[in-house]
Amino acid sequence: MNRKLYLAVLGLLFVVLLCGAPFMKAASDAGVLEVRDLGNRGEEAEFYEGTPFDGALNKLVSLKKSLTDLYTDYMPGYYETVFAYGEASNTLNAPAAEWYADMRAVTVQKPTDNSPATPPPADTVSSGEEGTEGTDTLETAEPEVPADPRNEVVSVSSTFLQSNGIHRYYRIDAEFGDGFKTSFLDTAVNLTDKSKEARVTMQAKKLNRIAEADPDVNFYFMLFTRMQDTDYYEDVIVGEESTEKYADLFLSLLDECITAQKWEIGTLRDRVERVYLTDHHWSTYGSWLGFCQICKMICPEHEPVALGEPVEFPNSKFYGSAARLCQTLDLWDPFVVYDYDLGEYKCSPPWRFNQQVKKLSKEKYVTPDVNIYAVFFPEVYEVTYPDNHTGRNLLVIGDSFTQGFVELLGSAFDTTVARYYTGYAGMNYHDVIEQYGITDVLFEQFSDRIMFDIYGDDQLSAIVLD
Fold first, then answer.
1. Which tens digit of pLDDT belongs to each residue from 371-408?
2. Which pLDDT does position 14 carry in this prediction?
3. Strand 167-176 relative to strand 181-189: parallel, antiparallel, unpaired?
4. What's the mean pLDDT in 23-48?
5. How many CB atoms lie within 10 A of CB 137?
6. Is residue 120 part of a domain?
7. Which range of residues forms the domain containing residue 53?
8. pLDDT at 185 (0 to 100)
9. Is 144 part of a structural domain of the chain?
10. Same domain, residue pair 163 and 233
């Protein structure tokens, strides 16, 4: 009897789990149920290339991934179980992890000084006024320029966490010359060199096709840089290769009608201060610096608005996608925004900075199932500054980096229109330009997406250009 009861309970549990996941997904898609997730979805990749059956194999991989996502993210009790386990694990392992990080920093340190090189002292030379012999004058040597301790990397070490097929994830511990210590998460693209080059070439052709579709507008491109696109990357994550050469290749393949540049994260300190520690997106401070850089490229005569006063939300924690995926719940970002004092503007859908501050201040977000950045910065599609009279209207074609940035960027133009990668399909490029009187187009995307189409979702070919 006990055995039958045990089998019955086990069978019932199996049926609940088997049917529960599809039911919860359907309810979530219908808006009836809100499922708390850990950011495991949305990462797609081709796993087979150049084989006789690569198409069929990739379809099988895609099906396998869909089922894996379904029976993890939508499994009843999955989030609660994993989150509870992650909290308990981090609490129990915290002392050992701190000791281990200190030991790695000491034994595996690899100094990387990204500060400008100190000029050598000038030689001591003898000289004399014309017509005067034997009169020696000692030239004073130029004083040495001290290295900037903020950019001086005293020690840095990395620890491999996991791989999900298209990225390898690492935890990095770093200490700088001014005593600042930090830990953050970053990635390595998991593609072959052959695949990287092929994808870069194809993606550049797609972007050129868009830029060449309307020669009457000014076309600009901003590559949102990852740490792997920098020259110091290999000193930080030893054993992984920098993708800087692929970023340079991509830019070199762009049509001459495109004015292009990379977003600047030229030092490891830049990576820490301008990008979220647990995510790949630029922070709100980084987006302001990106705005200033874009203004120099598109409208150098425009004086960018000041950074403004920081607004903090001490009761909340921002867990980026890397923290959610790797379950490093001891790592999170404080969420900070800046009051730019943008003046009067209209946007669609309506969005007001002060209202969002009040909204977020009333809430307490401390679990990784809530993307605080997306809560504070929903997608905005049109911004108009009635007091601006620049004679220039901007179309921004971007990805999630554009989110939370349109209102700021729009302050340099009369009207700014944003189109996000999730809505490229069916977008008629010429109609948008004509409807809004667009004079300038800014294409901006994260390097993983635009260079490698690593998520398989860039949809550039779905933009209507005929």
1. 889 889 999 999 999 999 999 999 999 999 998 899 99
2. 73
3. antiparallel
4. 61
5. 10
6. no
7. 2-76
8. 97
9. no
10. no
Does 322 fall in a domain?
Answer: yes
Of 336, 403, 190, 174, nearest to 270 by C-alpha is 174
439 with 398, same domain: the answer is yes
pLDDT surpasses 60 at 119: no
Of residues 20 and 37, more confidence is placed in 20
Looking at the fold, whether 102 and 223 belong to one and the same domain comes out as no
Q: In the prediction, which pLDDT does 115 show?
A: 37
Q: Are residues 285 and 212 in the same domain?
A: yes
Q: What is the mean pLDDT of residues 104-129?
A: 38
Residues 26 and 85 both lie in one domain:
no
pLDDT of residue 26: 77
Average the pLDDT over 108-132 and give the result: 36
Q: How many domains does the chain have?
A: 3
- Of the candidates 281, 188, 167, 291, the one whose C-alpha atom is nearest the C-alpha of residue 230 is 188
Q: Based on the domain organization, do 157 and 239 belong to the same domain?
A: no
Nearest to 255 by CA among 207, 327, 310, 324: 207
Q: Which amino acid is at 146?
A: P
Rounded distance, CA 265 to CA 271, Å? 6
**Do 327 and 280 fall into the same domain?**
yes
Task: Please check whether residue 220 is in contact with residue 443, taking contact to mean a CB–CB distance below 8 angstroms.
Answer: yes
Provide mean pLDDT across the span 205-213: 96
Residue at a domain's end among 56, 76, 96: 76
Mean pLDDT, residues 158-164 taken together: 91
In terms of DSSP H, where are the helices of 240-309?
A: 244-252, 268-274, 284-298
119 within domain boundaries: no
- Mean per-residue pLDDT, 433-438: 96
Pairing relation of β-strands 440-446 and 218-224?
Answer: parallel
Strand partners, 219: 258, 441
Spell out the alpha helix ranges (H) of 186-267.
193-211, 233-236, 244-252
**Residue 204 vs residues 149, 199, 419: alpha-carbon distances, Å:** 39, 8, 19
Residues 164 and 51 in one domain: no
Q: What is d(CA 92, CA 95) in angstroms, rounded to the nearest whole number?
A: 7
Which residues share a beta bridge with 393?
Answer: 415
Residue with tokens 């992890």: 97
Per-residue b or e along 384-415, where b marks 16 or more CB atoms closer than 10 Å to that residue's CB = bbeebebebbbbbbbbbbbbbbbbbbbbbbbb
Distance CA(108)–CA(337), nearest Å, equals: 35
Q: Which of 59, 76, 93 finishes a domain?
A: 76
Q: What is the DSSP letter of 426?
A: T
pLDDT at 197: 95
Count of other CB atoms within 10 angstroms of residue 219: 24
